Amino acid sequence: MRISSKKTLVCALACIAALAAAPSGRTEEAANPDGSARKAYRPDTPLKNTEHPAHEKYQAMLDDYMARPDRYTERWRPQFHFSTPQGWMNDPNGLVCFDGKYRMCFQHRHGTFDGRTSWGNSYSMDLVHWTVLPPAIVADELGAVYSGTAAVDWKDSSGFFDGKPGLLAMFTCNRRHTGQVQGLAFSRDGGDTWRKYAGNPVIENYGTPIFIDPKLFWHEPTRRWIAFIGGHGKLRIYSSPNAREWRYESTIEEIGPGGEVADVFRLPVNNDPNNVKWVWSAVGVWFVVGDFDGHEFTPETGRVNFDAGPDAWAAQSWSDMPPEDGRRVFTYWVWEFRHYRRHEAFRNWCGALTLPRTLSLLQGGDGNYRMAQTPVRELKTLRGKTHSLGPLALKAGETRPTDIRSNTLEIAAKFEPADTGRFGIRFLKGGGQQTVVGYDAETRRMFMDRSRSGSGKGKKTESRELLPEDGRVRLRVFADVSIVETFGNGGVANMTGLVLPEPENDAVEIFAEGAGVRVSRLDLHEMKSIWRARE
Length: 535
Prior knowledge:
Layout lengths: L4 H11 L11 E2 L19 E2 L5 H13 L19 E12 L2 E9 L8 E7 L5 E8 L6 E10 L12 E10 L3 E9 L7 E2 L15 E8 L4 E7 L4 E6 L6 E6 L9 E8 L2 E11 L3 E7 L4 E3 L4 E2 L6 E6 L11 E6 L14 E2 L6 E7 L5 E7 L7 E7 L2 E3 L4 E7 L2 E9 L5 E9 L2 E8 L4 E5 L11 E5 L7 E8 L2 E6 L4 E6 L8 E7 L3 E11 L8
Parallel strand pairs: 3-22
Antiparallel strand pairs: 1-14, 2-10, 3-4, 4-5, 5-6, 7-8, 8-9, 9-10, 11-12, 12-13, 13-14, 15-16, 16-17, 17-18, 17-19, 20-21, 21-23, 23-24, 25-37, 26-37, 27-36, 28-33, 28-37, 29-30, 29-36, 30-31, 31-32, 33-34, 34-35
């Protein structure tokens, strides 16, 4: 995904006016727009190594930074969310599970590789603790490397892996003078290092200013690779037997504008393995349920909101999770960081990702779909000291402080609300600042109030519909220095927000306004740092 839509649009419009639009219907894209033959892979085709002269310098930076006793202690630096040691980061890219490791690339800028957007690189054994590596795919003569995805080539259909499994990645090259195109890279060592395919670009621009963020996956029924590529109000679908030579299949236009950062996957409805649907997600902001036959995506619904904001954007999920696991795990960029790139506190680093979440596709009795998101179970390993309260009753207008002082918390609360009134938790509190997560019983909405959460750009109260279940409301909140994630009733409602309180503001209290409320249970878990907890 591009960082600045306006900038990309202006550049692309100026550059591709002369490009001819591709013909409608399915066509073989056997030639480049200038009529030259497309490069096909042969065993003797030179393979373009993505190892950049700056990789050694980047590794030296990593070694130096991670050896520092004050690492990951900068002002507003999250402690159990992923962020890079140095430099700018945004969208997650190339998420794939292979050989026991969760691979995660991300949009990254750093001075060691000339500051142009490239793919940073990392991996985890548990979706919680991360090891950062030198960049995976670096910008070159085809342009900056924008968002894309990765998948396992289990049967070596690409011919890159000598008959063994390997990793493929497809990404957008932001080519300044001839439009955005799609490139291919592969990894023979499980994702530690990557090579670009010498025949790039593998899919040319068809005459549009925005052609971006390919979703790559293998479609077993047709035994072909599939790419969903979005932007500029439509989404185009391509197929390939080998991920190198691509054919246009179809276009989705009736859904409306958008379609960037596409993700496509199958999910059981209400956890029923006999009722599985295809889901097309666009930036993790909305999704469409439908069917896909390898050629066309047939929508069953219109756009359904994820309701993960206000500061969650550009979500991707891990491909190739082990069958015995079976989860679809999602993560977002906390995109409000885009406003603070020039803030002094973020001079050396800027950007973070949300906690990984497990997706569940739910369908109600009315036939409508919604997507539940719950933090992955592995996060429980970060729980330190736990403080528990309840059962107890709060009277209308009552505030009850807790004895915990921390700005890295998991809060799990169960309330039994009346028909009116508001209640919830105030945290990151002190010096006139606080962040509030709670519930309005009259409107039946979960809310996040950041109006007094600290430095920031006009924060307001956000809310999501949340109906009581068996007369109870469950709120689960993760507060991590500058990031707050809230999940209601098992994640059927959720919100993510950036907050910038003073670091000493770490008090927690519960409250009731307008009516009393019964607190069935309140658990406050102090959370360990993923960067320092193993010392």
